[in-house]
Design goal:
By secondary structure, this protein is of the alpha+beta class. The protein has a single domain, classed as Peptide deformylase (Peptide Deformylase, Alpha-Beta Complex), CATH 3.90.45. Helix content is about 30%, strand content about 30%. The chain is built from three helices and seven strands. The protein is globular and about 45 Å long. The chain binds zinc ion (ZN).
């Protein structure tokens, strides 16, 4: 089922999400729907608060341009290690439609999480995947990529966003 994506400046995007409980019966359906929503958008990552659910779950597929889907589901993800070396690259977000900006992120991170079957797991990512891990985990803590930009750039992008949101509203 394709879910509605919560858009900036909704206060839902600013909440800290709660851990998913081991007996949560709704999580499998939620992450499946989140995957479907992300592919349809299309996007490379989506966090539960972006569909209005304040739980610590994210889906990522940074290989969506390749023929094969590789959906990563991370429940209660936690960054175990992040490399000191940071790289600047452009990011966007399905909750901030049509705006992009450069954000500094660690080039390499290692994350621990539970998979969709409740198995504890770990994964490392570099470059684009590392960036996706950091961007999506930020969402679970109410942080958006524009928060990690310099104030001048952030103010510019906020102006651009206000314009875009107005255009989208008048388009109906
Ligand atoms: Zn995002």
């Amino acid at each position: 089922m394709i879910l509605n994506i919560v858009k900036y400046p909704s206060s839902i995007l600013r909440q800290k999400c709660s851990p998913v409980q081991p007996d949560d019966q709704t999580i499998k359906k939620l992450v499946a729907d989140m995957g479907e929503t992300m592919y349809a958008a299309p996007g490379v990552g989506l966090a539960a608060p972006q569909v209005g659910i304040l739980k610590r779950g994210v889906v990522i597929d940074t290989e969506r341009n390749s023929r094969q889907k590789n959906l990563l589901v991370l429940i209660n993800p936690n960054i175990l290690f992040s490399e000191k070396e940071e790289v600047l690259a452009e990011e966007g977000c399905l909750s901030l439609p049509e705006v992009f900006g450069e954000v500094k992120r660690s080039r390499f991170v290692r994350v621990e999480f539970f998979d969709v079957n409740g198995q504890k797991s770990e994964l490392s990512g570099e470059d684009f995947l590392a960036r996706a891990f950091q961007h999506e985990i930020d969402h679970l803590n109410g942080i958006l990529f524009i928060d990690r930009m310099s104030k001048i750039k952030r103010d510019l992008i906020k102006m651009e966003l206000r314009k875009k949101m107005k255009q989208l509203a008048t388009k109906g």
